Amino acid sequence: MIVSECSPVVLRRQLCGQGVCIRTGPLVCRIQSPLPEIAQALAAYYADFPILPESRFADIHLQVRPGRGLRRWIRPQVFCQCNGEIPFNPHPRCLAPAMLEWGLNWAVANLAHWYLMIHAAVLEKGGRALILSALAEAGKSTLCAALALRGWRLFSDEIALIRLDDCQLVPLARPICLKGASIELIRQQDSGWLVGPTLPDPVRGGIALVRPKPDSVAHMQDPAPVGWVVFPQFVPGSAAQFSPLPKALAFLRLADNSFNYSLLGTTGFQTLAGLLDRAAGCYKFRYSNLQEAVRWLERLMERPPESSPAGSLTQFDPTIEPT
Amino acid sequence: MDYRPGSKSLLVQVLRQPEQMTSLDLADWDLLVRQARSARLLGRLGCQAEQLGLMDRIAQPVRPHLQAAIRVAEKHRSTMQWEIQQVRRVLAPVCQRIVLLKGAAYVAGQLPPALGRLFSDLDILVPKAELAQVEQTLLSAGWQPIKLHPYDQRYYRAWMHELPPLEHRTRHTTLDVHHSILPETGRLHPDPQLLLADARPLPEKPLYLLSPADMLLHSAAHLFQDGEIGGALRDLVDMADLLRHFDADPQFWWSLLARARQLELARPLWYALAHLRWCFPPQKPDLPALVPADVFRQARADQPPWPIRTLMHFLIRRAIQPELPEQTTWLGQTARWLLYVRSHWLRMPPRLLASHLVHKALRRWRQEEEPTP
Prior knowledge:
- The structure holds 2 protein chains of 2 kinds.
- Chain A is of the alpha+beta class.
- Chain A has helices at residues 8-16, 36-45, 96-109, 140-149, 182-189, 214-218, 247-256, 261-264, 266-278, 290-302, 313-316, and strands at residues 20-24, 27-32, 51-52, 60-66, 77-82, 91-92, 115-125, 128-133, 153-156, 159-163, 169-170, 176-179, 207-210, 226-234, 241-244, 281-287.
- Chain A is built from 11 helices and 16 strands.
- In chain A, a hairpin with an 8-residue loop joins strand 5 and strand 6 (91-92).
- In chain A, helix 1 packs across helix 2 and helix 4 (140-149) runs parallel beside helix 5.
- Chain A is globular.
- By secondary structure, chain B is an alpha/beta fold.
- In chain B, strand 4 and strand 5 (174-178) form a beta hairpin.
- Mean pLDDT of chain B is 89; it is low at 1-6 and 368-373.
């Protein structure tokens, strides 16, 4: 059964009681919450996700709860508990759907050490994965949402899961979290009503969640080999520009952006090295215009892997600066 | 698997008989993994499963969680080892003896409790006379205090058995420098001179471990006198491991009892032995008990009078059951709260305690008035 087949009443009752077990990629999450917003968020953003029978073993246990004491009623707050821990301060209650996403991201990043985990957005097209790795504010989620709306298969907007044995990327296919100005940019291109309402948030300039396309969810158990590794950087006023990055430098950047590289020790090193050995190429990518950036990334992925060893993109576009 | 909610928790049962891990179904594991995580014992279960060769027979969806917990524990262990070396390097010129306590001691001494254990900080014991110099040396070598409030500084320096906790500026590890093992204002006063004098050297100078009896007594005092009841089950597991390890020496038990009297720790020792017997009874009636019957009979001389004994039994048994943070019971919470109150009662004389609590309450109240970022 998938979430959209479950009646709102049943969904709500299950969330209040034993919880709803949802599969996202390789992980089973048991979500519990007395809040109606969470039931609505599941129905809206997780409509195509399978619900598993209650008695199963869940990898992640997440509760989204109303604030304690007076904060239940006065300037109401919400907090989440992931596998027994409370990772964040309480937030205004209107951010409950975002809290669910932050909580799940935190839980995955602190739990799934049977993968190498990198802070990156991952999408797939033509059987190969694109890794967009960057720190906050680089526009990673915005690029990810724009590509997902254009039919790329969504793996994750936050966490790249890399299998330790064969370096394949594993999807989570969960909703994308947009912030501030990027919400309207993405909404303009959204013909399928995938972008949810903007949740007011003075700190981040609003938050909106993007529901993954049914196709991404349907294939969320299918991993993909790496294609390109791109480090995007939003630079206002700049023209789109790829600069090739030696794999050794890409390695250092990815290790820096990893959640568990040092925890995994030698295995972490070998997995990351294996990933980069298999990558067709690594690039720094400067951009300011979203449409232009998307066009460039699509052209990049259209290149067949055998004809484009790292660095060959310099011949393909004259605007690329030398290494 | 058969267990009743009122009896010992699934986690306690599995810790006692790790072989049970192969016969649990997925619903049991769903509970057990959460209980073990909240008691910080999942790494321990993972390591035991691996050691006993059970991993292949454990339900498939659970295995990655155990293996991940082993990885995390391994990382903790190597971090602890590195940290011990850093402290040793810095303090060797100014310290005759650095006695490693608790987790650090288990790692450096390669003792059984180190298996799959998580460590939150590094604890060391130094002579009180060297305390000022030790602190200065650490401050100039990259450690810094984390409790900056003047009241906290005074609280530690005037009344506690340790310096205000230090954190390393770049590695963000916490270091607790003790000059005794219980607060100076507390009811019991184990003489730190005795502990230091009987400490056993490690090959790497000037690192020392407490003697076997003292190591156990410290753990018992920490749990049943200083009241860190939150990690109670983990502490009991530590003690059970130590007892099984030191048991080989026939003199151990008698030196333990004599030493407990000498250090004023006979009462905490009795609590520890009584609850270890309850938590980890022998797997079969004909197997030897964790605590020999004649030793326990002797330790009974220091048990509390019956109304207190019964009440404490009730509270401690409640408090050591791992409670899932998402499903706390009022009974468990009340038991923990009462034990917390008790630990404060034992920590300071009544007048000092009253002024301490008022101070803390005022600070909390003032902080709540401040806007939250």
